[in-house]
Design a protein that fits this description.
With 246 residues, the protein is α+β, with helices and mostly antiparallel strands. It folds into 2 domains: 112 residues, no CATH class; 124 residues, no CATH class. Strands 5, 6, 9, 10, 14 and 17 form a 6-stranded antiparallel sheet that branches. A 3-stranded antiparallel sheet has the order 11-12-13, with no helix packed on it. A two-stranded antiparallel sheet has the order 1-2. α1 packs antiparallel against α2. The protein starts with a helix and ends with a helix. InterPro entries: Flag_bb_rod_N, Flagellar_FlgE/F/G, Flg_bb/hook_C_dom, FlgE/F/G-like, FlgF, LlgE_F_G-like_D1. This is Flagellar basal-body rod protein FlgF.
């Protein structure tokens, strides 16, 4: 009976984790370039006890173990908006932005020019070009971004937006503000990524699917809670009856 309670608790912990993942996905349905995550679990079989005096071998107890939240890197919908300073990333590439914690990676291509004339994204992080930050003076006009990331104005080429890829992009870690970090050294995207000017990549979260998952998790959590409650009541009844016999 005690093992059954532990199994139930392990299931509840896993379901609570999945609920957090779903809630975060739903909160970012409208976030530019957001990539959804899913919860991944696996069965853990507790080692059985053994001794020569046992009449038979113990049954293995199966627990639920959290195996992480893999990143869904599927392409989000591309929505043209006509803004020459916006770009949607196609392929497996990521934009590089400079944050207070260092270089980070994002799919948010909603760019603008800050008060210093530096190209930044909508969160205020400096967009990194192949040669560093890209600056545009107030006197320049006709800003345009080419599919290869080249930024130009009436005065010529001002830089080229840096695009990178990773050997294992699924290992990217969320750091808030729709940016990721990685312990892996990024590499130039090459043909694995390009930008589409005058458009933005929307979140790849599928709201209907997430709502379905949410209902399934809530239903399962309620069922497990009910089972744990009944087991606890059964244990209490057994203890009281044993006490009466004694």
């Amino acid at each position: 009976m005690q093992n059954a309670l532990f199994v139930g608790v392990s299931s509840q912990v896993a379901l609570a984790r999945e609920l957090d993942v779903i809630a975060n996905n739903m909160a970012n349905v409208s976030t530019t370039g957001f990539k959804a995550r899913s919860a991944r679990f696996e069965e853990y079989l507790m080692p059985t006890a053994s001794a020569d005096s046992f009449m038979g071998s113990d049954r293995r107890v199966s627990y639920v173990v959290d195996q992480g939240t893999p990143l869904d890197l599927s392409q989000g919908p591309i929505e043209p908006d006509g803004n020459p300073m916006h770009v949607a990333v196609r392929g497996d590439a990521f934009l590089v932005v400079r944050t207070p914690a260092g270089d980070r990676f994002t799919r948010n291509g909603a760019f603008e020019i800050d008060a210093k004339g530096t190209l930044v994204n909508s969160d205020g992080y400096t967009v990194q070009g192949d040669g560093g930050p890209i600056t545009i003076s107030q006197q320049e006009t006709g800003l345009a971004i080419a599919p290869d990331g080249t930024v130009s104005t009436n005065l010529g080429v001002r830089g080229r937006i840096r695009l990178v890829t990773f050997k294992n992009p699924g290992a990217l870690k969320n750091e808030g503000a729709n940016v990721y970090s990685s312990t892996e050294q990024p590499r130039a995207a090459g043909l694995d990524g390009r930008v589409e000017p005058g458009a933005l990549e929307r979140s790849n979260v599928k709201p209907v699917l997430e709502m379905t998952r949410l209902m399934d998790v809530n239903r399962t959590y309620t069922t497990v809670s009910s089972i744990i409650s009944r087991l606890d009541d059964l244990r209490g009844t057994a203890i009281r009856r044993l006490a009466d016999v004694a």
